[in-house]
Amino acid sequence: MLYNLRIMNTIFNKRFNLKHTIQHPGTKRWHCIDYVLFKQSQSRKCTNVEVKRNAECWTDHRLLEADIRIRVTRKYNQIPKIKGKLDVALLRPDTKEGYEKRLCYEYALRQQWEAAKAIGQGTIYSMLEKGILSAAEAVLPRTTRRQPDWFRDNQEQLQAFISQRDKLNSQWLRTGDTRDQEAFKNARRAVVKAVRNAKNSWFRDKADACQRAGHGDKWRIVLEMKACHDGMRPARKVGVKKTDGTMCSGQHQVLERWREHFNNVLNIPSSFRENIVDSLTQEPKREWIRAPSTIEVIEAAMLKLKFKKAGGGDDILAEMVRCGERVLAMAH
Hints:
The protein has 332 residues and is mainly alpha-helical. It has three domains: 2-68, no CATH class; 88-144 and 291-331, no CATH class; 149-228. The chain has twelve helices and six strands. Helix 10 runs antiparallel to helix 12 (325-331). It starts with a strand and ends with a helix. The model is unreliable at 230-235 (pLDDT under 50).
């Protein structure tokens, strides 16, 4: 075919009245002058071509309809790569001085802060947030995710199965062939089986090591095994109790107990009198609340921050503030 195209009108065996698209005004003979063109490599996607005689198109041509089989590929949203947390445990006295110097460099205290105060409090806090995070990222590394011990000990064997699975998955998403899909499913089953066997064999070896341990070293090996299992213990299931102290046995009883609890807590009739509320004396305004905070108050608030707590939406941890409290107090 010319330009690697194929005319699909003549592929399907149809009656003449389902092929012709226009009637000659003089001879009154029907002709086919409207065509559906497809690439030769994609011609299988066209399943039918015929003329719709009863369709009103406001023209002397008849409507030509083509049925096309389209496979819609699912587009997976790319999950953004999650950065590891900053290793604030490295903020020791030997690194604290470097962190403070970097903090001073990020702020350019005397010039930038005075200029920012004329813009607004929102801009000042934004500069404070970016300065702390930039100084911490310049001094501290990010923690890496620690895999379970049974996975790290068998990582070389499992990585081959995982790489093969990912390769077949990419091939299936690119081609959409059912054979590639079946190959991907088989590779995925092989990965699950390999991971299960590696995990079971690792725990079996640890159990055998504990049994072979002598009297003098058995407790040491048990403690090492407990350290390996740390974080892998199943979570204890917490139940809901009824008013008489017994546990709720089903989902319906749990929902009914919560409904009863919130009904007793929230639906309480109010018993106040408006004349008594109006007779209450108004406390005087505390003007000192509007006054700016002093350096002593800020330092006292910083000293109350507790370590090893999760950061908020800005990812600023208490260790970053405590180690730079002298610089931040000066910035205030």
